[in-house]
Amino acid sequence: MTKTLKKTLALLLSIVMLMSAVPMGYSFAADALISGDYAYMLSEAGATITKYNGTDTVVEIPETLDGNTVVRIGADEASRLMPFYQNATLKSVTIPDSVECIGYGAFYQCALRKITVPRSVKVIEERAFSCCEELTEVVLQEGLESIGVLAFQYTGVKSVTIPKTVTAIGE
Questions:
Q1: Which of 38, 77, 93, 97 has the smallest set of CB atoms within 10 Å of its CB?
Q2: For 3-42, what is each residue's pLDDT tens digit?
Q3: d(CA 157, CA 93)
Q4: Strand 146-147 versus strand 168-169 pairing type
Q5: Is the dihedral of CA 55, 60, 61, 62 positive or negative?
Q6: Which residues contact 131 (CB under 8 A, 6 or more apart)?
Q7: Do residues 76 and 101 touch, judged by C-beta distance below 8 A?
Q8: What is the pTM of this model?
């Protein structure tokens, strides 16, 4: 092998090793906007919170970020933008009535203990609250239509009342 080829292979191997060290819940969002402790992206529907950088134990998610209505917490599964991923300080969160969707892994593996999902939320996606081992209290409101597969896997939740408006679970 030539020296150039060896150097190229070493560089590629280094890049692969570096990329594999990035945690599952972290993704690089070049188009993210910042407002206080929140990173977010905009769509025609409104703002999607993609990262929370605060350390508060009790968080009240704002209804707007820089004048943009917050409609979603966490992006889709493909992006792996999980805003509260491994947040060890978060114990309680209040979600505003503007939010319609809690995205894939939004609160994955955080220290959340209780959550009330407002009537405005229509969809809780896959793994939204998975591995929140301290989560014991979940209140789901009428209006919720879909709960994704493994949404509450590996939590401390013993029971939850499923609203009559839910038409899909784990699909």
A1: 97
A2: 665 555 454 444 444 344 344 443 444 568 999 999 999 9
A3: 16
A4: parallel
A5: negative
A6: 108, 109, 153, 154, 155
A7: no
A8: 0.80
